[in-house]
């Protein structure tokens, strides 16, 4: 086959990509998600696969179209990305393999020739809009939100020659202004200037990476229905073993009112005895526990390990019970 045909180019591309990890993420190029991805991979050594939404990014790992996904899971202003929590909680099992934090502030940008006074319709990802609500009220009181699928989708649309976009300006990540040939109308747009978004690296289940000493474990837990004290009993599994929770939130199960799934981050690794013991407790008292992985955390742990809950304490206690069983201790 003559070189230069699209089929040959595809073969070359496949060959070049073979062996390089493939990452699905929310695109197009220049999103905060891509900034998170660039903390762990570079386009020189990996294949970046931009997706239209976070669910498609996660599903690409399930179908095998990607090896990993990077998705936003939690904003310091807007809270959790519920589509991500729900997609991870059900369907074929996946695990979290890492986390990244990205500072988030926006530029209000438009096509060259647009002035701030001409702006009424502002395209923005719903999380971006929520993160800039006060700024918009003060600076564009008549502004109307045009929802966007990501923070760079409107920038990419403005970069095309399309005449009628359906919006006048967009909230975009700072690097997207130049990358998409836009002009800034207002810089550093944010209600909270310390806002950050936390992203997670998602992959298919495999051996859990060794503990680093500063790890996090993510779980999905269901409670027995209509049982007084079920929530307390679930929480006691952690408290009794000195396991600190860094996040807990409930998500409706969807099939009827009053049924919830709990999404939980705990400090520690499944190789830590106290975390393993808490997991065993959950397995005994909860009808459903999904392990979403143990992985290095990016911030420092909040809680100190409580005396009596170190690995050595659990191992000594277990050895003592064994000795009782063997008749070697009383
Ligand atoms: O559109 C992007 O740039 C994203 O990475 C998505 C996302 C999110 O889903 O929360 C990430 C960071 C900001 O908080 C706003 C939007």
From TrEMBL:
The keyword Cell membrane does not apply. The keyword Amino-acid biosynthesis applies. The gene is pheA. Residues 22-204 form the Prephenate dehydratase domain. Residues 219-297 form the ACT domain. It comes from the Bacteria. This is Prephenate dehydratase. SUPFAM superfamilies: ACT-like (SSF55021), Periplasmic binding protein-like II (SSF53850). Pathway: Amino-acid biosynthesis; L-phenylalanine biosynthesis; phenylpyruvate from prephenate: step 1/1. It comes from Actinotalea ferrariae CF5-4. Residues 7-20 have a biased composition (Basic and acidic residues). Residues 1-20 are annotated as: Disordered. One of its GO terms (biological process) is L-phenylalanine biosynthetic process. The record marks 197 as: Essential for prephenate dehydratase activity.
